[in-house]
Each structure stands twice: as C-alpha cells, then as structure tokens.
# Entry
Amino acid sequence: QIVLSSGPVPFLSLLSLMQESLFPLLTFLSLSLSLSLSVSVDWVQTCQSTEDRLTQQRPLFFSSSSIPSSSDLISVHVDPSKRYQKILGFGGALTQSSATVYKTLTKDLKKEVIDAYYSESGLKYTTGRLPIHSCDFSVDVYTFDDVADDVNLDYFDTAVTYDQNLSLPLIHDALASNPNLLLFGSPWSPPAWMKDNNDMLYGGSLLDQYRPSWASYFSKWITAYKNQNVPIWGVTVQNEPEASQTWESCLYTASEMSEFVGGYLGPVLQQDHPDVKIFGFDHNKDHISDWADTLLSESSPSSRYIDGIAFHWYSGSCFANVAAVYGKYPETILLPSEACYELTVLEDDASDEAWLVNGTWSKGEGYGYDIIGDLESGSAGWTDWNILLDSTGGPNHVDNFCDAAIIASEDGLNVYYHPQYYYLGHFSRYLPPGAERVYHEVYSAADVQSTYEDCQWPYGGCDESTLHVTSWSVEDLEHDIVVIVMNCGGEDKMMNLTIDGVDGELINTVPAHSIQTYLI
# Structure
C-alpha cells in the first residue's frame, strides 16, 4: 500500500514512486512463481575424468533463460506424444564360466555380485541368458544325453546333474534376488550323435532324422529346469547359426531354421510349454534383415511360432539393419542377446594389473553406443555376455578369453567393476520393463558429419562427433521421462534439452567421455 502526503503529487512523481515501491515485490513474486512452476530434474553421471560412477548429482531445473545459439551447442528436443517399442529388460548371461568363478568367491563376495546385478541397489537386471548344456564359456564339453541314437531321449538326464553344483546355485541366487527374471536358454550345439560331423565342435549340421529328437530335447530341458525351480521364459533356436567355430557350434541356413521351427520345435513347445517364447537367428546384425524375412514372412513355416529375433554385435553396429526389421515387423521382439569384448581380438594397451582393476574406459563407451543405437532402432533391451569372469577373462575350454563387467581376482578375494558395468547401469537402472521409447531429435548449429560407418568391424567403437541420446516414457511415481545422453568424444559438449509439455529448457555440460541419465 502506498500512502501519499497531503497536497498534489505530479503524475510522473507518482509513477516513479509506484515503480520504486512495487518493483522489488513484483520481482520476488515473479521469481517465486518461476521456481514453483519449474521442473526439477534428478540426474546421475558416470565420467572418466571424475570419480562419478552412476553418481547422483545435484538437481537441475528447466529454466526460461536461454543461451545464445553457437556452433558448440547441441540441442535435444523430446516429443513424448510419439511412441515406439516397450522395454522388456536388460541382463547378462549366467554361463558355466561365470558359475565356475562364482563358486570360488567368499559368501560375502557372492552376495555382493548378486546384489550388484539383481538388487534394487544394483543394476536391477530383469533378464538372463542360459546356455543349454555346454558352450565355449564352460570348462567341459557336455550334454544331458550322450547316448547315441537315443531318438526318444530315454536317457536324457532329467536331473541335469552337471548343472546341480555349478550353474544352478548361481541361477538360484539370482532368482532369490529377483524372482521375476526372464530367463532364456540358448544351445550352442546338439549332442554330437545328432550331427553330420558327429562332433559338438567345429560346426556341422543337425541331421534331418534327429530334428524331432532335438526339438524334444529343448522341451525336456525346459521341464528339467522348471523342476529345479528355474522358470524358462524363452529360447533361441541356435547360437550363431552362421559360424563354424572351434567350440560348440552348429550351422543352419535361414530356411533350415525356419523348417526346424515350423515343423518340429514350434509344435513341440506349443504343446508342452505354450508360454515359452521362441527367438530366431541369434547371430550378427549384418544379416538380420534376410533372416527376419525368411523366418517371419507370411509364407514361412516358422512365422506362427517365432516371437522374436535375437542378435549379436560382433559384425559392427548395423543399426540401420535392426531398424529395417523393426519397421517391417513392429510386433516382433528384437532382443540383443550377446555382446562382449574378446581379449584375443581387441587387446588392451594397459598392463594386466591396470586392466584387472580399472578395465578399459572405451569398452564402457562401446557398450553405451551399441545400447543406445539398438534401442533407437527398435530393440526391447540388451543382453551382456558373461556376468562374471576371472582375471584371465575365463575360464573356458578353448581359451576364448573375454572381458566382463565384473572380474574376479585370481585368488577370488576381490571383484573389480569395469566401465561396462556403470554404462549398463545408466540403462538398466532407469528403464524398467514397460518403459516406452519416445521420439527425440538431436541437432547442432554446426554441420556435424559423422564419418563412423554403421556396419563395420571391429565391433564396439563409438562415434565421437556428437551426443548419443535415447528418450523414454516411464511409469514411475516420481518421474515421467528418462533421457540418456552420452559423449564419447574427447571434448566437453554443451547441451540444451527441451521437452514438449515442459516449459523452458535445461542447459548442462556433458563432459568428455561421460554418460548421463536425466529423470524428469
């Protein structure tokens, strides 16, 4: 309230007095209103140059203030009204090698590893891949029926004895932490007696006369695991059907897989385990389109049984191929089912000790780049390879050593978290099953031209020229939108984020070699 002294007051003086008296109040009210309407943003960061590892940061706010456009500014705009596929889950493979290492750990370290992956305080894994008998990442070569010509599988080991003291304890501990895990099995090879080379190793093919037996083997394995309190959610038909390897392997053409699923595996599982999903292909993305067409076309004998297409990353990113399959078969689940860094293929410059303790930062970035690219191309999640290995990257029976997100020391008294672990967590912790991808676009005042080829070898690289982004709608009591932003380049990048329906913009620096998850 303004009180005037007696006597006439000139108009300009009155106006001046009102401005001086009201301006501070109006300014305060305006600021308060702006703050009350601004959207708070929780966010976490992992950054090479700091100690941030999935570290919660101080909240940010969308603001009406803006910074001038510049060639250094990268803008990200999200439109939640345009929606795509939903998340199924993230996880890793519980291989025999992982179980072998797990068995050597102390009780406390076992709990730490399980919590790190499956608990609410860890990565919140919701899926897992299980080898159906031995694979390259097992110490021994074995099956559950090695009796030649046992076409009716009368000698199938329904107790799955080999796994009793190895894989099953690890799987049971994982299920105890998350009883809702979606577990899917993958065979590397049928028993030797079912193949034309009479060997589980070195490729070879399934003999036609044993197609019914091999289909029944799947069913019996699912039943045996169910009887061990391990529910099986899905199976892939064959791991890497195009590769003849020195380890367990079996060759199929796309047509042969379609015939096997349509005539044998599909009908058997539909009768015995109608809820178990079948995933075709399970090999590299460079050939995913051709295989999807053969397995899913209306005239294909397998089309009525195939629920999804599984694939690996070893041929390079190939995101355009995945997107083509998603565009053509949008109801089909696209599931990245394996990725890792083979130490025999991509060696580290670091010493053994430095690698053991710290891992290699670029490998985390390679995971992040592939996950973002796959998700933006229509994938429903992402699956790492071995969840745990020893300090050599094993053990396994062919010395095919690999890196892993968690590595145990030689004496089994310590475990070390490699960058892949933290990069995975930016997705698995904040994109729960049911999260739905929403549209976004990334643009810069600078004309950034990527020189990174989409489908190249070796795998696991990252385009450093821009920010990599994926955006999702989540059903969360505290947040509606999740935006994940990664910078694998050597220079900091400035980002401004806008979202339809949210006033203002969020401006933040994305440091070199970092990944951030924004919860809005």
Q: What stands out?
A: The CA atoms of residues 42 and 382 lie 24 Å apart. The chain has a mean pLDDT of 91. The two ends are 41 Å apart (CA to CA). The chain is about 30% helix and 20% strand.
